[in-house]
Amino acid sequence: MTIFQNGHLKVRKLEKKDKFLLAKWLSNPKVLEFYEGRDNPFDIVKIEREFYLPEDNEVRCIVEFDGNEIGYVQFYQLDEETQKAYGYTTENVYGADQFIGEVAYWNKGIGTLLVSSMVRYLTEEVQAKRVVMDPQTRNKRAIRCYEKCGFKKVMLLPKNELHEGEYQDCWLIEYCT
C-alpha cells in the first residue's frame, strides 16, 4: 500500500517479504555506523522481533526510488510522556526515523527528497503540527539534510542513545508548521 509518492520516490507500507531487505541493510557496517551501530547487526529473527510487532503505533515503510527498494522510514505520533520530556503540550507531534540502505543511493539528494516529502505528508495529510527527530550530533551528513528540509535544532539531548558501547549526544530537531 502506497503511503505517498513524489516523482521517482515512493514510500509504501512494510510487507512481510521486506524482512530480507532489512536484514541485508541492517547487517551492512556502512549503514550501521549511524543507525543501530556496527556492533548491533540484525538477522532475520531480530528483524521480525523489532519491525513486525502488531501492537506498536509506528507506521513502518519501505522507500523506493525508480522502482528500486532503497531504504526504510518509520513515523509515529509521540506519546504524552515523550512530548512532556521534549517540552511539548498537547500538540499533534510526530517523530520519524529513516535510512537509505542501498549505499549506491547515498549523496544523490534522495535523502533530502525523502525527508521533505515525508514532512509534507505528515503536515498536510496527517495534520502534524511538528515533526521531530533526534540524530546523533556526530551525524553531520544527516543533520545537513534535515536542515535543508527546514528542521531546526531545538535541544541538545546529552548521552541520549547507546551506540557501539558509548552513549552519544543527540540533537532534538523539529520542523514546525
From TrEMBL:
Q: What SUPFAM superfamilies does UniProt report for this protein, alphabetically?
A: Acyl-CoA N-acyltransferases (Nat) (SSF55729)
Q: Which Pfam families match?
A: Acetyltransf_8
Top-level taxon of the source organism: Bacteria
- Please name the GO terms that the record assigns under molecular function: N-acyltransferase activity
Keyword Oxidoreductase included in the entry's annotation: no
Metal-binding among the record's keywords? Answer: no
Residues in domain N-acetyltransferase? Answer: 9-177
The alphabetical list of record keywords is: Antibiotic resistance, Transferase
Q: Which GO terms describe its biological process?
A: response to antibiotic
Task: Spell out the InterPro entries in the cross-references.
Answer: Acyl_CoA_acyltransferase, GNAT_dom
The record's section on PANTHER family has: LYSINE N-ACYLTRANSFERASE C17G9.06C-RELATED (PTHR31438:SF1)
Protein's recorded name: Acetyltransferase
Q: Which organism is it from?
A: Halalkalibacter hemicellulosilyticusJCM 9152
Where is the organism placed in the taxonomic lineage, from the top? Bacteria, Bacillati, Bacillota, Bacilli, Bacillales
